[in-house]
Structure formats: C-alpha cells, structure tokens
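Title: Prediction job returns without error message
Component: structure pipeline
Severity: low
Priority: P3
Assignee: unassigned

Description:
Job completed but the reporter wants confirmation the result is attached to the right record. Sequence as submitted:
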Amino acid sequence: LQQMTLPDDFITQAKADMGDSLWQRLAEGLAGEAPVSIRLNPLKCLDGKWTAVNADGRVVWCGDGFYLKTRPAFTFDPLMHAGMYYVQEASSMFLDRVMRQYVTDGPVTMLDMCAAPGGKSTVARAALPEGSLLISNEPIRQRAHVLAENMQKFGHPDVIVTNNYPQDFVRSGLTFDVILTDVPCSGEGMFRKDPDAIGEWSLGNVDKCRRLQREIVADAWACLRQGGVLIYSTCTFNTKENEENVRYICEELGAEMLPVDIAGDWCITGSLLSGFDKPVYRFLPGLTRGEGLFMAVMRKTGDSEHGNRKTKTKKQKSDRNGRRNSNAACPCTSWLTSPDGYEMTCCGDTFTAIPRTWKNVFDAASASLKVLSAGVQLGTMKGRDVIPAHALALSTALNSAAFPSAELDYGQAVSYLRKESVTLPPDTPRGYVMMRYKSVPLGFEKNIGNRANNLYPAEWKIKSTHTPEGDTRVIDKEERTGSNVTAE
C-alpha cells in the first residue's frame, strides 16, 4: 500500500458527503494500487482477433477495454505509437456506455470541449455513428498539441482538433448535437495516481472549480441544439462540483436528466446530495475498479433565455488559418482509399483532405477558430516533391497500396520510433516507403539508395535509450485452433 496523507478538509468534506461507511471504503481504495487498463482502437483492430496479452479481465462497461495484470513499458511498444490502443483508466471508458445508449442515430456533430489528452475523445469517436463529425477542443495550447497527436494516432478522418476557449465556440455560431464537458476540476479522483493532485487541493480550489465549471457549461449550452445531449464529467468526488452543478444545469438552463443502463455489480454510486435523487454516476476507488469519476447525462429541453442564446456568426473575409481549396493542385489524392469523398485544401505548402460531408462545418470552424488538424493531412510540397505526412501513415483513410512497405522487427521498430536510421532491404524501391511492425503502419522513410532518411516526427520520438527485456507485447492477435486460443 502506498503512503498517502490526505488534507484534513478533504476528509471532513468527503465524510459529510458520503457518510462514514462509504468514506471508509474510499479511504481503503485510495490506499491501494491503481488498476492498469487499455482500450483497443476498433478502427484499427478490425478483424476481432486483437486482445491484451497480459489481461486481467474486461472493462465491463466498455467492450474494447481490458485490465492488465501489471503495468508494461508502454513507451517501448510500437503498437501504442501506431494508435492500435490507448492507455486509459477504466472509469473514463464509461463514456462508451453513455454514447452507445444515447448517440445511436446519425450522423451527428459532437464537440468535446476540454479534450486533452484525448482519452474520452477517442472513446467518443469510436462510438459515434458512421458519418458523424467530432470537434475535439483543448483551450491550453501545449495540451492541445498533445491532443492533436493522440487524435492523429487514433486515425479517424472525421475529426477536427481545435485550440480555443469555450466562449470562442459561442461566438463562432457553430451548434452541436452532442457536447461533452469533461470540465477542469479539483482532481480528487486522481489522488491515487497523481500525488501532486493532493498538494494542489483546497476548499478554495473546489469553489473556484465549481464556478469555472458552470461558466464552461453555460457556453456549451449555448452551442447545444435543442434536444441535444450534454455529457457532464469530472474526476472528483465532492457534491459541489458534481450534483450541485448538475442541479444548477437542470434548474437554470433547462435540462432533462437521462438514466444510463448499468448493472448493480459494477458498484457505481448514485447521488450523494441530500434531496437530489436524479440519475448520476460516481466511480469510487475501493468500490469500482478504476479511478474517481463522476458523470451525468442531460438533454436540452428548457426554454430559458440563457439556454437558448442566439449568436451571430461574423462573416470573415478569409480563413484565419490561411487555408485555401486546391483540388486541382493536389498531386497526392491517390494516397487515399476514397479520394472522391474529400475536398483538398492547402495551408501554406501543406495539403489536407477534408471529407465533403462536413466541409461546410470545417469552413465555418476555420473562419473563427484555431484549427490544429482536420480530416487527413496528406503531405507538404517541397520543390516538385510532396513529402507524405506522418498523420497520413496513421490514418484509416490511407490507401495502403500507394507506397511500398518494409516490415520491421521489434528492435528496428523501436529504432525507427527513436528517429534513428533504419536500414532497408536492398531490393526496396527508391522513394517513400511505409515502415510497418506486425503489418501495422508506423510512418515513412525516404529511400535514396545508399541510405534512408527517417521521417518520423522529431517531437514524437522516443527519447529514452533504454530497451526493455523479455516479452514486450501489450496486445497481439489471437490464433484460434478449435477450442484452444493461444497468442502468436
């Protein structure tokens, strides 16, 4: 058990919210080890044979989630860098359950308002109906770039990543069928995993977060279409940031609470606020197998003035991101499996393919928001050559026949991810070559004959020189022979 000294004010507040018995279960849970879990990317694990190698059971509220018996050295697994799975704590995967119950008819347009590092956005994108668009936003610039990286690794083309504050979306005039507000909070649910969260906690910060959360939700509510679904989420335990805010949304903005189908043996706790018995879902270490999480699902039904603010979109003379349409000028449309479904845009010398079905939303977003990535980045023009983008290698829209490929063993794959030189077989054609591990794309090299240039993004490379020993697999394909199942 790890030693943990919790703030006295936190203990007093938690006991008041939970009662002595529930508090004792939580205290025991916080003193224990945090479970390790991953979620497969169903967009890339397509044949149904991929599974966790060191599995310790399934995450019951998410079909793609697995618990692991021990924490592997994820950094040194090429398949994680390829976006085949996402390392995510299990409670956060409950979003999958919510989405598959309430977001079934599509296509829809969804906004994840505070999305970094991208765990819940990847859950949402996997669960959204076909043809839906997800705008994944993060207000903090550095965190927004981490978000863009993780969404590119996930590989779905129907995603826009933005770096804006909630108020910017109100001004943009964009509206959404579904909005996830995984709001900044006091972080009580992270005490077990992040000791710094304990030192940063205070009653004053709880109140500050409560007020900020209401401001974010108010902006989200203005962008939510009538009848749309708002998913409110925190990683904290207290009722001030949770039930009191949900009650505020119901009473002040006009929301109908939506129940989520759960099983009793999942040990999810309901409302802890006296006099408030609406359906809410609280995950407590010591009861549920995961970290602290609170989630509530609401439908926009009210007709309050605040809840139905009308916004006017300013007409902009040009795209603030400097993009222009360039279908005729783009020489790399054959790199996509279905190029006719895209319109090509150009920002500087970089070509991007935007799905035609939501090009109008992209244009509106580009006019008023800071767009970091969208659709499929194809490549960058250099002289007469177009250098293929790393995001293209990781995209599910990639035409795999467009490039020759080289299969790497584990050591070569790790070297490639360190941006070291990897020698190609002598019969490899010159030009751009797709590097693969277990047949999964990792990125590009340019074969110039006597050597090959590693094109892996420098900012993404593995910086550690350590190489773990033994079995490094986190996921692998199952080989089914009769009734026996063995890992390859």
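Comment from assignee: result matches the submitted record. The longest helix spans residues 203-223.
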